[in-house]
Each structure stands twice: as C-alpha cells, then as structure tokens.
Amino acid sequence: MEFSIHDELYARAIGWQVLEYLRREHPGEAAKEIEGDALRVLEKIRTILNDHTLDDPDCFQRIDLIVQTFYANGIRTDRHDFL
Fold first, then answer.
1. N or C end: fewer C-beta atoms under 10 angstroms in the chain?
2. 17-76, pLDDT tens digit by residue?
3. d(Cα 50, Cα 43) in Å, to the nearest integer?
4. Are 68 and 54 in contact (CB under 8 A)?
5. Which residue has the higher pLDDT, 80 or 44?
6. Could you please report the per-residue DSSP string of 22-78?
7. How many CA atoms within 13 Å lie on the side-chain side of 32?
C-alpha cells in the first residue's frame, strides 16, 4: 500500500502524540512491550545471521530474510526491492 507524503507526515504526527500520551499516562507499560518486540526482532536477525545453511557469498538470502523480518514486524524499508 502506497501512502502520500501528507499521509506519512500525518501518521508520524499522530504517532508522536500517542507516544507522549503513553509516556504520560502509562509510563513503563509501552516501553516494556516495545522492548520485548525489539528483542524478538533482534533475536530473529541474530538467528538469520548465524544460519550456516545460507551459503550465498553475497548474503542475498540473509538480507532478504532480514527484510522479511522487518516487514513481518511492521518495519518498512525502502532499501530492498526483491520482495
């Protein structure tokens, strides 16, 4: 799904407002959830990097799996166009 620049800026502004609210009204709760999510993503990336069955010398398989991990967790990247 493509978003306009206006949509992206609007979503970012809303995100900052939500973050401020959570920090003010529920300190620590959101941080714990976000930290847990981040650790799960990092663990998945570490597993990919340590997977010796992926043997292409240019690491395209690893890069593709890492980008897939990002997408599966709602992390967008414009640096990859193989999907």
1. N
2. 988 888 888 777 777 777 888 899 999 999 999 998 988 888 889 999 999 999 998 888
3. 10
4. no
5. 44
6. HHHHSTTHHHHHHHHHHHHHHHHHHHHHT-TT---TT-HHHHHHHHHHHHHTT---S
7. 4
Tokens of 21: 């609210």
- At position 66, the amino acid (one-letter code) is I
Task: Read off the amino acid at residue 9.
Answer: L
Which residue type occupies 44? K
Give the residue from 67, 12, 23 showing the smallest Cα distance to 45: 67
Tell me how long the chain is: 83
The tokens of 60 are what?
Answer: 């395209």
